[in-house]
Amino acid sequence: VVSTQSTGSSGINAEYGKQWYQRRVRQLQSTGTQLQRHLINLLHDLNLPGKCTSVDTDLEIQTLKIQIITNVTSYCVSAMGNSNVIHALFSPELGVKKGNSLNLLISLLQKALEGSSHHSDTYSQLIHKAMHVNQLSTEEQRELAGSIMVDIDKCSAIQRAKYAELRLEQLADTKDKELSLYTQLIESLVYLLWRHVHHYTVYCKEPCLDHVTGEPTPKRLLSSNKDLTKQLTKELPLHLTDPFLKKIVDFCSSKTTGSGSMTASFTSALVRRIRKLITA
To answer: SS3 of 80, please?
Structure first.
């Protein structure tokens, strides 16, 4: 009798423990989903910096924005997982300005390419000025040196030029850091875009197992997925045009030397895969 009661009690405890564990998992998943949503919303709240009229305009804030957006996209890459059926973070809608959709990825990618090109030009200009600081006007030297030396009027012409050169080097270092961030951002965005386009155009056409419940996709949801996939396939060529994709390839081509050459080649390969999915 004691043995039977003990076995029954153990079974109840095991079942209770299992139910507690499942509730805890669901709670953690819910919390994680909310945190993830808030994190991705930063991509809406923080716009990538546009072209600045001055190289010294809110530099720290500008760099911080790029850093945050780059970190968020890097998180998105890791959050999707490595299986064929991904945990999609962005919906397949195009042409909508609100919500975490593919439209957001494409918009960020366009801005990142423009920003990278602009910062590259600015970086080259800063380096050129630093190497030929004596050719700058007195007023420009005073403006640059004034960022380092408060009482610039007490400086000699040689000191003023030296401080101006130092400031230009500081600005160039900042631009170089921003260029590295833009490179990482563009690579992450292209990867996210490819994984989502591949997911929606290939795996959403057929029934598959839900990544959380392990259950097959309901017929109603599968039908909805097919409609979204059809619409996405129709609209993608209008958003991912050949000139736009060529910009990405050209960007990658400029990175084919040095330590970033392998990643750039991989990104170029992803662009080819995206183009193939669009034209399939």
So the answer is: coil
Closest to 273 in 3D by CA, of 225, 230, 226, 240: 240
CA dist 147 and 20 (Å) reads: 61
Q: Which residue has the higher pLDDT, 189 or 4?
A: 189
Q: Do 73 and 188 contact (CB within 8 A), yes or no? A: yes
- Residues with Cβ within 8 Å of 146's Cβ and at least 6 positions away in sequence, in order, are 152
Q: How far apart are CA 199 and CA 1, in angstroms?
A: 57
What does the DSSP 8-state code read for residue 91?
A: B
Are the CB atoms for 50 and 168 separated by under 8 Å?
no
197 contacts 277 by C-beta, under 8 angstroms: yes
Mean pLDDT of the chain: 78
DSSP structural state of residue 209:
B
Comparing CA positions, the residue from 183, 60, 50 lying closest to residue 111 is 50
pTM equals 0.77
